[in-house]
Specification:
Blueprint lengths: L3 H4 L14 H13 L1 H14 L5 H11 L5
Length: about 70
């Protein structure tokens, strides 16, 4: 779960809540349920950011970090 903040930017492409805080999680779910525009905007941002995490991009970066030549 430590990498979630690397993937999710709070209020940009998701809502971050403190670990083990079920009250905050419930509030975040309620916000998304009661604000379809927010849900749509967050979803749209995720769609736009998807290419950053495509295997075709990530794997070569990881191999380079490991100093593995392909």
């Amino acid at each position: 779960h430590r990498s979630i903040p690397e993937l999710v930017q709070d209020q940009v492409n998701g809502l971050l809540v403190p670990t083990f805080d079920s009250g905050e999680l419930a509030q975040a779910i309620h916000r998304l349920d009661s604000d379809p525009k927010m849900l749509s905007d967050l979803s749209e941002q995720n769609w736009e950011m998807r290419s950053n995490y495509a295997a075709s991009k990530v794997i070569p970066d990881i191999l380079q970090l490991m100093d593995i030549k392909v």
